[in-house]
Design goal:
Largest sheet of chain B: 6 strands, mixed
Radius of gyration of chain B: 21 Å
Number of strands of chain B: 19
Structural class of chain A: alpha/beta
Oligomer: heterodimer
CATH class of the largest domain in chain B: Alpha Beta
Strand content of chain A: 15-25%
Number of helices of chain A: 17
Strand content of chain B: 25-35%
Low-confidence stretches of chain B: none
CATH topology of the largest domain in chain B: Gyrase A, domain 2
Number of strands of chain A: 20
Chain lengths: ~525, ~400
Amino acid sequence: MTQSYDAIIVGGGHNGLTCAAYLAKAGRKVLVLERRHLVGGAAVSEEKYPGFKFTVCSYVVSLLRPEVIRELELAKHGLQIVPLHGTWAPMENGDQLAMYADPASLREEIKRHSRRDAEMIPKYNQMMYQMVGAVKPILGYVPPNPVSPGFRGARTLLDFGRHLQSLDKKTFHQLSKIMTMSAADFLAEWLETDVVRAVMSISGIIGTKLGAKSPGTAYVLLHHYMGELDGAFTAWGSQKGGTGGVSDAIASAARSYGVEIRCNAPVQQVIVKNGRAEGVVLEDGEEIYAKTIASATDPRVTFRKLVDEKDLPEDLVRAIDKFKFRGSSGKVNLALDAAPKFSAMTDPAFLRGSIEISPSVDYLEQAYDDAKYGAFSKRPYIDVDIPTMVDPSMAPPGKHVMSCFVQYASYDMPEYGNRDQQRDAFGNAVIDTLSEFIPNLKDIILHKQVLTPWDIEQEFGLTEGNIFAGELTLDQLFFFRPAVGWADFRTPIRNYYQCGSGTHPGGGITSGPGRLGALEILRDGN
Amino acid sequence: MPRHTPFHSRTNVLCESQSWVEWSGYLSAQMYEMDHIHEYNAIRLSAGLFDISPLYKYFIRGQDAVALMNRVITRDASKCRVDQVIYTAWCDDEGKIIDDGTVARLGEDFFRMTTATPTLYWLQDNAFGMDVEIEDVTDAYGAVALQGPMSRDILQQLTDADMSDLKYFHLLETKLAGAPVNVSRVGYTGDLGYEIFADPDHCEKIWDALMETGADYKMLPAGMISLDMARIEAGLLLLDADFHSASSSIFELEKTSPYELGLGWMVNQKKGHFVGQQALRHENARGPATCTVGLEVDVLALEKVFAQYSMPLQLPYQSWVDAIPVYSDADQRDHIGRATSGTWSPVMKKYVVIARVKPQYAKLGTRIYLEQTVEARRFAVPATVVKMPFFDPPRKRE
């Protein structure tokens, strides 16, 4: 049986759904094909233990573009994001760093560590606010080809140039530093307390196989500052029911515009004839035709799995093969019988916030050293989030789910044995490390789910388990993402487009690639 | 010196921000934490617990109780069955609103009235010649409101009564943590929720039980700031914000009628005589001078205003209560009314406003202009007339 659509989106992750929603809103007949049994890609909530919903991969939201929330009316479709209650970190000496969201409490707490830093943190935030202001307009640009920009690309470059020129000297100076320095060095220019630097530099290493002291990580830090919640600068929050709720809201919006979504429908290949995409073949052999095919998968899958090498220019093939994935993070999700008790935590309100196992800059760097050559950190950096502290819909009353984002792990860690043994060893290292700070942890674990980068690849199709569908370092952003000349959501194959996190503006729950990709498809009249 | 409610020993300890306002002579928490937003989110995700003891409360008993209620309120009290609650307005002789509130029928000849303004004298004056006993029980009862999607589950843990039997705008007498209480399924948040009345001696015990059980459901004690955001989302009016009481207004132009406030549906002209009936009949015949509408502010247009100053869009972080000019035109020449309260709604991701405008601008979809001040300059920002309540989840009634 063959059926025809205006557009087929390969991959029902949040960007694929976003792209589909925009195309359908513009009147196109759209089909989304998802390999798994549910949509969301890496933004899914799954009941992995009866009564407990896990935010399996991604777990917090901030970068979701406000224009997408508005244009797709996501609040009407179930988007409900609750801001986190500050950031808290235990220290190795039993003390704590409690980063309150309100400025007065924050100042008082930082004073305990350093009177100078108590005054410098607001200055630092002010500077970062200006950095974000300087860089944020880029999120809405379609990256031009810097080599042969064409008329439209030239205009974008001109706009961008004018924008950079409009920045004052101080901002420009900071901007060039943030583009080149390491997160730890950049922070050291502002702040003197080690634990403050350690906690604040972690945004620079998320999803990246680099250490806090590696040059280039300061930019990754900035990337994580570009979000907002209801206009509140850099605020992060949890979606009701987990990040799957964001995907469900986008899917619901997409369906309301007429999008058809098929789960358990893995695409084997894109049908290409005479350099033009005409449809897809599913793994079961079914062929479906459409005028436009858009891939919301990562660049490796988009260019190296779904289409044949002979349909692509050699330089693109080479660029995609060199594109850095090297997943560096894993995930441990726990179902808990009771609330965890952090021995250093004096204000339990911080259980509602981000909890960072990042007691010192050297701890972070040591974690990187361990993993550099293909292993996991013996004492890893862990970002703990307990959504059930505010959201009663994710576990039975009094019980909790605890999401632990862990860095570093490696795609293959042969020294620990086979894949199952690697996973067990990794999971145990995480729980042992957490237990140093949460003495009651092992007594309250009802169930655990451990994902190494390899597991993330197997289950979610993200190459080498990279959570951003390709690292977010400067050499892989904007007109480099995923390759020079092919960053404008198009591909060398006519009517074949890209709309996943492997394109601008990159990973995280942003919906940016999905929206921009759809707008480019529509601009081509497809 | 403001007084303490029967819950104060508990709320005082919890009120980390120590930010209190005076409410009818009592201290009332503005917010418990340093940031109201967590309390707001609890209301929409779990539940918020409010100390509403300062509400004025009156018992009206006797064989003329129905007659007195019917003389005072605009709705038909005889249609309110025992164990039912109605939301109603009451007016002066000129048909100008004195207050709105709830009337609960506790027995055949027994009503409880809750009000925002002192109403004893008004009930007494209207009861002239009637066989009725009016008692001010404001201090005789403490009260909390438990509001939010988890409120039913929380209450169910603490009582033998089947809470799923309690319908919207109905009440029941039961025991909560062993203490006798009157629970009515009403509220000021537009969500699933309850109001619980109890003897002051039992209030601490009830608060403790609710806090302990509520913790498992992520309930938070909540203050007036989050309540105000929720009530605006629910399109509910606030005294001294969206209207003034005719009984305390000095100037005629401050007074409004139920028709002007969108409460015309609660004026029952078919029942017998009530205070203000004749004036309201005339007003209804000629049409009200103004209409209360819901507005949705065009956030993109507001963003453009901020962009003129190279600033990102700034949204109100909490609700506001004010009198802001509303115009029919972008040039701000044709003044057509006032916006009286507004909030950015985090749950709807919309900037919603309650306004009172000339009737010809009250039609749904009408585009009008709201004055907004940015960097000390006034701008007319477009807004669209939309349906109220802005936020109306099915769980409120289900």
